[in-house]
Amino acid sequence: MNLQSKLAILADAAKYDASCASSGAAPRNSVGGRGMGSTEGMGICHSYAPDGRCISLLKILLTNFCQYDCLYCVNRVTSNVPRARFTVDEVVQLTLDFYRRNCIEGLFLSSGIIQSPDYTMEQVVEVARVLREEHDFRGYIHLKTIPDASPELMERAGRYADRLSINIELPTAEGLKALAPEKDSAAIDRSMARMAVHIGESRAARKEQAAQAIVSMPQSRTTRRASVPHFAPGGQSTQMIVGADATSDSTILATSARLYGAHQLRRVYYSAFSPIPDAARALPLAAPPTVREHRLYQADWLMRFYGFTHDEIVPSAQTGMLSLDMDPKLAWALAHRERFPVNLNTAPRELLLRVPGFGVQTVERLLAARRVRRLRHADLARLHVPLKKVLPFVEAADYRPGRALDATDLAAQLAPPPVQRSLF
């Protein structure tokens, strides 16, 4: 099989991996003729950094051969799909060739399991090693790691990759046992814990070295110590399949909250289950609405940046499921109308963050502005917030919402009907 045919198969097989955002990379570039690649410039998979930059990644599998029989996976051992496998050198050359053509700024590499987890992980790590050490590649590298691989290989992966991800696959151990019996949820958890320790130790060491450097600045440069190497500076992430079993949204969010707290994950990705050819009877016949995946991302954002806990986002009255008709922040506000309206000039940051239509940056700007003057209705218009959504929930120096909060049709006024879009 020629390289182009392999690329067609293995790039398509990688499309189900959602966890390929490239935020958190260490700043590196090839300015001055040193090395090749960059994690800083503007950029066939598109990811977005926290500042909104679009970053293009070569997103492929090393191979879609796999010895596991996970029922939800199109690349499972019993699946009747075309198979292909790259060599280490082929992945390296593809990455370099795409970079030289200015098509990509980094690599996202995953793989099916062949021979053994250690053998597969060794091949994946070797790709990153060759790029870094032999070609001085300074672009972004994200490696999808294998939980059953040895701790030594996982540690090596962190030396070369900007981000590592270990897929939890399904939100519950019971779901994983039913649909992927060869995978061990406890092993996945242990691997995440070890990775979190390595990442934490590396960050602590670099922080300590930076503090020592400030103290010893007057000393001679000849006494400067070697820099502590980065270890997966972009942290670790994971991915959950949504809708492959009957797990509720509240359980999914509870699992995410536990992972964020226990392993300091940078991100949890949610991937709506997509029906596959020759699917097992245990799987649903249809994909869940993609708006469900969208609502989970919104709820995840509320936990990470807005101070919400997972159990208040999905109250028991909703039978464990997020509303598909409105975003979870608006749903919470409508269910807690007694907490509103909030006064823009006196409310604490925590309550302002719960106003529908307010983002984190908007709240910070409001807090900064009210230090020097009283906020008025016109200030909201200048911030370009969605006034229709915001105004029923706030009051300002010259504005009161009146009885808008008591309107029985307020939900219908504020929540547009959801739109179902295709996955690909």
What do these coordinates show?
The protein has 424 residues and is α/β, with parallel strands linked by helices. 38% of the residues lie in helices and 10% in strands. It has 15 helices and 9 strands. The strands form 2 sheets. Strands 1-2-3-4-5-6-7 form a 7-stranded mixed beta sheet. Strands 8-9 form a two-stranded parallel sheet. β4 (140-144), α4 and β5 (163-165) form a beta-alpha-beta unit. α2 packs across α3 (117-134), α4 packs across α6 and α7 (249-263) runs parallel beside α8 (290-305). Mean pLDDT is 87; it is low at 222-226.
Q: Evaluate the radius of gyration.
A: 24 Å
What about the largest sheet?
7 strands, mixed
Give the low-pLDDT segments: 222-226
Number of contiguous helices:
15
SS elements, strand count: 9
Strand order of the largest sheet: 1-2-3-4-5-6-7
Beginning-to-end CA distance, first to last residue:
26 Å
Any idea what the shape is? Answer: globular
Please estimate the helix content.
25-40%
Q: Would you tell me the overall average pLDDT?
A: 87
